[in-house]
Design a protein that fits this description.
Dihydrolipoamide Transferase; 2 domains; four-stranded antiparallel beta sheet; mainly beta; single chain; OB fold (Dihydrolipoamide Acetyltransferase, E2P)
């Protein structure tokens, strides 16, 4: 029987986070305690460990996705003796954010105000890459993220860039 891996609450007040990076890929075998992903909250980036063992059958939430609600299925493990290819993944919930976003299937889903064509840290699909905290501060101060240059990993906009 397949096992759903859900977005963990890494702190008592965490409601959503960013799936910053997958440390495993589909087809990998994981054991309890193996590192699976890096999850970014508004305060820190933490590593997420597997609690079950099996084969990664399906990664439901793409790397770099912002606004993933706690409890959302992010991956599916094929159980012992189960064929990873036959596991059906649940439909991924669309992460909700304060700002509108543009959907593109293969690109990581992030939310941003309509970006201007100016040179800015962008991922596939003309999306501005920014931490959830940076997005919130920018919205409060009325800063357009498309005009901000990011100093974080892979050009991601972080809190210090907004301030």
């Amino acid at each position: 029987m397949s096992i759903e891996i859900k977005m963990p609450a890494l702190s008592p007040t965490m409601e959503e986070g960013t799936l910053a990076k997958w440390l495993v890929k589909e087809g990998d075998t994981v054991k309890a305690g193996d590192l699976m992903a890096e999850i970014e909250t508004d305060k820190a980036t933490m590593e997420f460990e597997a609690v079950d063992e099996g084969v990664i059958a399906k990664i439901v939430v793409a790397e770099g996705t912002d606004g993933v609600k706690v409890g959302t299925v992010i991956a599916v493990l094929a159980g012992e003796g189960e064929d990873a290819g036959s596991v059906s993944a649940p439909k991924a919930e669309t992460p909700k954010a304060d700002a509108p976003k543009v959907e593109a299937a293969p690109a990581p889903a992030t939310a941003a105000p309509a970006p201007a064509p100016a040179a800015a840290p962008k991922a596939d699909g003309d999306r501005v890459k920014a931490s959830p905290l940076a997005r919130r501060i920018a919205a409060e101060k009325g800063v357009d993220l498309s005009g901000v240059s990011g100093s974080g990993p892979n050009g991601r906009i972080v809190k210090a860039d907004i301030e």
